[in-house]
Amino acid sequence: MKMSKLLMPTLREVPSEAEITSHRLMLRAGMIRKLAAGIYSYLPLGLRSLHKIEAIVREEMDKAGAQELLMSALLPAEAYQASGRWEVFGPSMFKLKDRNDRDFCLGPTHEELFTQTVIDNVKSYKEYPMTLYQIQTKYRDEGRPRFGVMRSREFIMKDAYSFDTSREGLDKSYQAMYEAYCRIFTRLGLDFTIVDADSGAMGGSGSQEFMVKSPVGEDGIAYCDACGYAANYEKCECIVSEKPQIEGDFEMEKIHTPKAHTIEELVDFLGMESYNFAKTIIYKADDKYIAAMVRGDREINEVKLKNLVGCTDDLELAEPHIVRELTNAEVGFAGPIGLDIPVYVDKEVTFMKNFVVGANETDMHYKNVNLGRDFEADHIADIRIVEEGDVCPKCGQPIKTAQGIEVGHIFKLGTKYSDALGLKYLDENGKSQTVIMGCYGIGVTRCIAGVIEQNYDENGIVWPVSCAPYEALVLAANYKNEEQTKAAEQIYNKLKESGIDVLIDDRSERTGVKFKDADLIGIPVRITAGKKISEGIVEYKERRNGEVIEMSVDEAVEKVIKFIKDNK
Ligand code: ATP
Ligand code: MG
Fold it and tell me: What is the CA radius of gyration of the chain?
């Protein structure tokens, strides 16, 4: 491809709206452009990378025995109503009506439709096991679309669904997808961690997420180097770690704590440790309110709490006026004593003695509070966020934590959707049985951002060969020098004939601009025909290590071909 003909609107300036590197670089390299919040167009470079990732996904899914099909993104409501997810998705589902007032949605994920397709088209038990997949556009009206294609409202997902007649069959289908995912993410050059995950709204019995470790990841992951345990924060079981308590038999006492709203302010004011406090947070859970309590040095995991409460929408912090109404106090003084809503208590609190809680009265707290004596918990469970240094639930060694980008997710669904929609088969004895399902997603567009987050430097993107928009770049340092431009053209043609996906920078631009753009768009390897072309010498440079090596034209061409082959 000739760069002079390529729609590649690179930017020197960093667009202010972009908060993270991959988003900034995708905009700067002219890969994407924004249409609306969380909605993007892919320009040629972006689309090429996207197609390459799709091709890898497709190849590995096919190799794993899955069959590709393609469904509409515009879906009738009925199947989602039957599964209950028409309501469960809440505001994140794009809903619309056709001219006859019939309900439709833009598909956020397709469990229901694949189940229905199998109901309609598979007649005999002999056709199972079967895994079907598609690479298709999904729609979710995310509460906070951000980070470019990382969390967008329209995105491409590879979604696969397995159908089996036994639990053992499901285990096998799941394992095949697990292995395919490992191959896909390895080929994309991603450094990933597989974690045990919460099954959440999807239901089902087991699930794992493929996480790309990155400081900009929105998911917390806990892992143990000693035994290999890894789980996301929602799933990680927190082991109680006791802290020194105030021993003795003391009466509960109301104390004046003016303007001490936060744990830090209380620690300063009372001269106690944060773990001698228990904080009470009030949440809105669907149309009810609840209180949750953790030790003062801990944080609440809202997904664990949501699962425990069993609400549909995500928990939201209660608004200040509600807190005032429920506690008769300013925000910051809530406590469990005399509070008229269910109180969910973290199990670590049960090991606390003579601690401090809010008194539901502005500027007041209670001290010497004991659970069971001074108040009762409505529920006691693990509702806190795991922390670095906590004890590994599997082997007891210290846990480490990191942020991760979820690029893939695999679930053992069981019979949730087959029960809801009636996917049954007649076994060899003519008896009706329920089909057992699994589902498997990859965020294809999110992968592009994930790859960039792990592969960039101060000059731009450093693509792995597998998903680079072009594999190699050729340029003449001085476009006015005929010898250089001719040589560049010849090298370009040779590489093209050898099947290399090659780009030539034939623009009438200064050398500096060309080099800057080359680094920004991150093509893995490049050849520059410069001054020494009269001696038959060119410059060879791999984007990743940046080293410029002089060699003959033939050598450089051979080296590029070998480099691409070795790194594909
Ligand atoms: P998240 O927790 O990040 O919102 P999810 O768990 O809701 O994602 P799944 O339903 O498991 O997502 O979807 C499968 C895959 O689709 C995810 O692993 C992720 O890679 C991708 N994905 C989900 N939501 C988005 C989005 N808004 N933008 C881009 N990719 C997404
Ligand atoms: Mg997920």
Answer: 29
User: What's the count of helices (H) and strands (E) in the chain, helices before strands?
Assistant: 14, 31
Residue 13 DSSP label: S
Measured in whole angstroms, how far is the alpha carbon of residue 376 from the centre of its chain? 38
pTM for the predicted model, two decimal places: 0.90
Q: Read off the pLDDT band of 502 (50, 70, 90).
A: very high
| Structure-token pair, residue 534 | 């009269």
Buried b (16+ CB within 10 A) or exposed e, 499-528: ebbbbbbbbebeeeebbbbbbbbbbbbbbb
Reported as a single tens digit per residue, the pLDDT across 172-195 is 999 999 999 999 999 999 999 999
CA distances from 160 to 49, 133, 163, 269, 410 (A): 22, 4, 10, 56, 9
pLDDT band at 204, cuts 50/70/90?
Answer: low
Neighbours of 188 (CB within 10 A): 23
**Nearest C-alpha to atom 2 of ligand 1 is from which residue?**
406
Kindly state if the Cβ of 407 falls inside 6 Å of ligand 1. Answer: yes
Before 129, cis peptide (omega within 30)? yes
CB-count exposure of residue 482 (10 Å: 0-12, 13-18, 19+): exposed
SS3 199: coil
**HSE-up (13 A, CA, CB side) for residue 104:** 13
Question: What percent helix, strand, coil does the chain show, rounded to 5?
Answer: 30, 30, 40
Q: Which of helix, strand or coil describes residue 63?
A: helix
The strand pair at 130-139 and 67-68 is best described as: parallel
Beta-carbon contacts of residue 20 (< 8 Å; ≥ 6 apart): 147, 148, 150, 216, 449, 453
CB 441 within 8 A of CB 159: yes
Query: Would you state the structure tokens that stand for residue 35, as one six-digit string?
Result: 């249409």
For the CA of 200, the nearest atom of ligand 1: 6
409 Cα: distance to centroid of ligand 2 (angstroms): 5
Q: Is 157 in the pocket of ligand 1 (CB under 6 A)?
A: yes
Closest atom of ligand 1 to CA, residue 151: 28
pLDDT digit string, tens, across residues 68-83 = 999 999 999 999 999 9
List CB-based neighbours of ion ligand 2 within 5 Å.
409
Query: What pLDDT does 13 receive?
Result: 87
